[in-house]
Amino acid sequence: MDLQIFALLTQDGITNGAVxxxxxxxxxLVFTVTxxxxxxxxxxxxYGTLTLAGLQLGKPPGTVxxxxxxxxxxxxMEVVACARRGEPERIPRQIxxxxxxxIATAGLAWWLATPSLPFWAQILVTLAxxxxxxxxxxxxAYQPLAEASVLVLLIVSVAVHLTLTGLGLWFFGAExxxxxxxxxxxxDLGGVNISIQSLLVVGTSVAMxxxxxxxxxxxxxxxxxxxxxxxxVGARLVGIAPNLAGSLTFAxxxxxxxxxxxxxxxxxxIYYDSGFLVSLKGFxxxxxxxLVSYPLAAAGALLVGLxxxxxxxWASGFKEVIVFTLIIPVLxxxxxxxxxxxxxx
Amino acid sequence: MNxxxxxxxxxGALAVAAAGFALSAQADINVGVTLSATGPAASLGIPEKxxxxxxxxxxxxxxxxxxxxxxxxxTTKAVTNTKKLISEDKVDVIVGSTIxxxxxxxxxxxxxxxxxxxxMAASARIVDxxxxxxxxxxxxxxxxALMADAIAxxxxxxxxxxxxxxGFNDAxxxxxxxxMKRSAQTxxxxxxxxxxxxxxxxxxxxxxLKIVAANPDAxxxxxxxxxxxxxxxxxxxxxxxxxxxxxxxxxxxxxxRVVGKDGNxxxxxxxxxxxxEQLPDSNPLKKSxxxxxxxxxxxxxxxxxxxxxxxxxxxxxxxxxxxPEALKKANxxxxxxxxxxxxxxxxxxxxVASHGVYTMSPTExxxxxxxxxxxxxxxxxxxxxxx
Lengths: 345, 387
Known about the structure:
Chain A starts with a helix and ends in an 8-residue tail after the last helix. Chain A is built from 14 helices and 2 strands, in the order H-H-H-H-H-H-E-E-H-H-H-H-H-H-H-H. Chain A has a two-stranded antiparallel sheet. In chain A, helix 1 (about 5-35) crosses helix 11, helix 2 (about 40-55) crosses helix 10 and helix 11 crosses helix 12 (about 295-315). Chain A is globular, with a radius of gyration of 21 Å. The longest helix of chain A is centred in the first third of the chain and has 32 residues, at about 5-35. Chain A has one domain (about 5-185, about 190-335). Chain A has helices spanning about 5-35, 40-55, 65-85, 90-110, 120-140, 150-170, 195-220, 220-230, 230-235, 240-265, 275-290, 295-315, 320-325, 325-335; strands at about 185-190, 190-195. Chain A is an all-alpha fold. By secondary structure, chain B is an alpha/beta fold. Chain B has 2 domains: about 5-140 and about 305-370, Response regulator (Rossmann fold, 3-Layer(aba) Sandwich), CATH 3.40.50; about 145-270, Rossmann fold. Chain B is built from 12 helices and 15 strands. Chain B has helices at about 5-25, 40-55, 75-85, 100-115, 145-155, 170-185, 205-215, 230-235, 255-260, 285-300, 305-325, 335-345; strands at about 30-35, 60, 60-70, 95, 115-120, 135-140, 160-170, 190-195, 220, 245, 265-270, 350, 355-360, 375-380, 380-385. In chain B, the strands form 4 sheets. A 6-stranded mixed β-sheet of chain B has the order 2-3-1-4-5-6, sandwiched between helices. In chain B, strands 8-7-9-10 form a 4-stranded parallel β-sheet, with helices on both faces. Chain B is globular. At the A-B interface, helix 1, helix 11 and helix 12 of A face helix 2, strand 8, helix 7, helix 8 and helix 9 of B.
């Protein structure tokens, strides 16, 4: 191994690590606010890439149909909930909120999906389409069980993951897609070739991490979200609506996932079921951060990316084994160094 | 209406229904199909399923019931499907599954039930003549060995001395590596790098850097479907200047779409059906492939052809000549019919189907020869017959 190869592998590792970091952040975000271990995050990565690839072909992507379907289910659930509570006067407003906004988004995407749409607009449409699914997913799958234990929520996540993978096959087909790079070209830095695309990926990730860190640490609203995570009843008593917090968290998290999908698309071919492995690597990063710390989770994800890059050079057959074995010493270290606070059930 | 009157009527209706069912069961031939229309092999299984939908519902004047089940690319599910088809649907023959691990696992079940099976998976081990159980098993796709030989011959003819290999970290990639090692040795070509990757890997930079560092004259990518494009694009991005070979696993237009301009100049062995328009008129496959692809593209759109669907079509072609023979000896739904069908399949001679010409024998249950392969080149997003 010479310096050139070392530099290329490091660059590859950091680029992938930056994408995993976004996923790790989404996982930490969802877990801290809703206590959901969000296994289906990877599906939204795949949806992000495949939606963008569909728009590239100038056709309305499969996500449009999926979004409309989810909106119909969510608004039906909302109507039933209003009727049960004896508040029929709220029904029109709820329909407008749960069906109107997503279907309007889907309609806009349908109308915009022509070959002449510029690339940046395609990315915006992709992000809008996928992000709109987040709150709907929360409403359909998690909100009715929001008070349940972490274990129940985990099992729901597994079910949601399998359902979304199946829907992905239905809406996008079995074949994979790639998307074009944001920027071609590269420059030399001390004899090492650095591609602009990699820099963009890393830069965006760092910006996102900083924004989240600021949001949760310094703003009232971020603190409110954290309070909801700690004690739903208490948060409600001081005037925080837990369902709103959940919906917003899921919107933010799906946005992060869709963004990872857009970033990873130019590097590799993404299939309807590719997301799971990507999200597992983000999960290893999130575990290193103890599922609470954003900077530690991001650092962990970066480490996963680097180990993966070097493992694929030295022992490509055992790459996944090496990456996932990493979680064992981390878990040992965490269980020895942190004092466990038993969650009250 | 009182209960005493109702009961005899019900019994009568049931008896009529049962008699009707028994009659129709005796008259029809049931073909059980298990294929991988979902899961990792979905891009192979879906064209096969589409092809089954095109098939006629009578052969030799007998009604055929195609009973299609999905095994989700899962070995256990494939075995369960096979058992269900045999015990509940009383099928006379099994077609499937799409992939090698599933097909290997199904052999024990069909051998025990003495039901013939036609696999649509690639590995030669499925019909290994050394195993007494494979007496009941046939398969339509070309053996990997046949294709690996074609690559080695092409490499030798174009002056390749060293090659690198990057393939799937699974049965497909391992199988190809094994066959390629054997063929390369025969041709005097040295394998200087062996790398593995997964279909869902975010990056193959590490593996490709290692291959480029070894600097072989040619690289073979052992992958099926669009994932084959990932190492190819990386090789091009790393300025690899040698030849790039792919396997026949990438033979569909989705691969061309994903690999884009980085695919230019890639060479692979494939069933001639993919480029049937470019075959000389003297080639018998031109007409038979045109018949199948014409039907397929009429229903699923122009350019939708895939070589995998051809394997399902060829299973039907085998049955279309074997079933009339078996009908002369026994009635469908009986043990004797299944045995007669097996014998008839083994006696198929010079059957011109979509992928090649089948000639079966007791030691040869694949039956394809050199006519079932041709070298093609990717040229500006098109498959072109190579010289």
